[in-house]
Design brief:
The structure is a single chain. The protein is α/β, with parallel strands linked by helices. The chain has 5 helices and 9 strands; from the N terminus they run βββαβαβββαβαβα. It has a single domain, classed as TIM Barrel, CATH 3.20.20.70. Strands 3-1-2-4-5-6-7-8-9 form a 9-stranded mixed beta sheet.
């Protein structure tokens, strides 16, 4: 039987992207192929499993039981595509939508259930450029944008948007609060390039998980 290494699970609202404000269950998988040595401003705990937060070595049935009747389920991390998500997808009902938040370092184009999930790519160093056009939405973190070291540039963001993919600029924030300087920088970008959208991490503004 398949089992997953899960850091935590919780019920909240989606704070980012097109589904902002949507009630959602979050399943945060342990581990990340990118890691905090590269994403040194990462604001999530994915290194360990936290049983008191719903984490552990869990079966798809365990996760489905926690999800209950929620219609939206977010597989996040870390890097959720480091694990085989097919058994989890199979454990969901046909009414439930699986959202996958990925760094873009794992190719999702061959997933057998690709056309039945919502994929958000937030490109990190090592991302596969060609898969950005296949995402449902792309979320680019600033600073990071154009900072070298493999981070996507503003030109990449504009090119992806020109292909018809919803493309967000999101400020790099502190763990629980919004960085106002980075937010102002992102606002300047979307004013200059109105085809891009601003994602603000609504959950941090509302002070929920």
């Amino acid at each position: 039987m398949s089992r997953y290494e899960v850091s935590e699970m919780f019920h909240s609202i989606q704070g980012e992207g097109l589904y902002s404000g949507t009630a959602m269950t979050f399943v945060r998988f342990a581990g990340c192929s990118v890691g905090k040595k590269i994403c040194h401003a990462c604001d999530t705990d994915f290194e360990l499993k936290y049983p008191w937060r719903g984490g552990g070595d869990l079966s798809p049935a365990d996760i489905a039981a926690f999800i209950g009747n929620d219609l939206h389920v977010c597989a996040t991390g870390g890097e959720p595509l480091d694990q085989d998500l097919q058994p989890l997808f199979d454990a969901l009902t046909s009414q439930q939508l699986l959202h996958i938040e990925t760094s873009g370092t794992r190719d999702f184009r061959a997933l057998p259930f690709r056309d039945k999930v919502w994929i958000t790519v937030s490109p990190k160093p090592g991302y596969i450029h060609d898969i950005l056009a296949q995402a449902n939405e792309v979320k680019i973190i600033v600073p990071g944008l154009g900072a070298g070291g493999g981070w996507p540039s503003l030109e990449v963001a504009l090119a992806v948007r020109a292909l018809g993919v919803i493309t967000y600029i999101q400020p790099r924030n502190e763990r629980n609060t919004i960085n106002q300087e980075n937010l102002a920088y992102c606002q300047d970008i979307v004013r200059q390039h109105p085809q891009l959208r601003l994602s603000v991490q609504l959950h941090k503004l509302l002070r929920v998980r």
